[in-house]
Amino acid sequence: MGEATEDLRRDIEDTRSAMSGTLEAIGDRVSPGRIMERRRNRAVLWVRDTRYRVMGRADELTSRMGDGAHQAGQAPQAVAETMRERTQGSPLVAGGIAFGVGMLVGSIFPASQTERRLGEQAMRATEPIKGELQDAGRQVAENLKEPVREAVEDVKQTAQESAQQVKGSAQSSAAQVREDAKR
Predict the structure, then answer these.
(1) Looking at residue 1, what is its pLDDT?
(2) Between 91-108 and 32-55, two packed helices, what is the crossing angle to 10 degrees?
(3) Does residue 21 lie in a domain region?
């Protein structure tokens, strides 16, 4: 009889520990913070994957540049070749990358006298349309406010509904576990 009682106690402890892990997993699954974190992670992965499909992987580019960094004369050639490979058939992407590389290189080296003078001339030339561009930017921002607000509300509502569903499921599972433990 003593062995049977000991076996029952061990079985009960095993069941409790298994239920504890299950209840913790359910609690983690229904946590609104964790739900939002999972959604944010999915969005970040989607953006990163989309960026990789359009522009290629930055870590591959930097590893190629890093490997050839000691050969400074060959680095620009390697970058140009990599850009050609990554953007073949995508002229807009190639233009965007070229613009970004130009901005990066331009920020590294100090501006020359001629560049400063040309920059000032460009500023004077764009002054008349500056207000129009600012107004256009404000209109775009105003037009985007409502869709963004609706999207945020939709995500919030979906998260709340999901939390309620999981909470209900967790409660019914907990009740079932308690019932099973009583037996």
Answers:
(1) 56
(2) 100
(3) no
Residue 122: count of CB within 10 angstroms of its CB: 10
Q: Is the dihedral of CA 100, 105, 110, 111 positive or negative?
A: negative
pLDDT of residue 67: 52
Predicted confidence at residue 55, as pLDDT, reads: 65
Predicted pLDDT of residue 17: 82
Angle at which helix 32-55 crosses helix 2-30, to 10 degrees, equals 60
The per-residue DSSP string of 165-179 comes to HHHHHHHHHHHHHHH
The pLDDT assigned to 77 comes to: 65
CA nearest neighbour of 173 among 25, 10, 31, 11: 25
Q: Give the dihedral sign, CA 100/103/109/115.
A: positive
Q: What is the pLDDT of residue 173?
A: 81
133 and 181 co-located in one domain = yes
The range of the structural domain enclosing residue 79 comes to 31-109
Half-sphere exposure of 175 (CA within 13 A, CB side): 5
Beta strands (DSSP E) in the chain are none
Q: Which of 141, 41, 56, 46 is closest to 96 using CA atoms?
A: 56
Using 50 as the pLDDT threshold, list the residues of the chain that sit under it.
68-70, 72
The DSSP symbol for 68 reads T
The per-residue pLDDT for 74 is 58
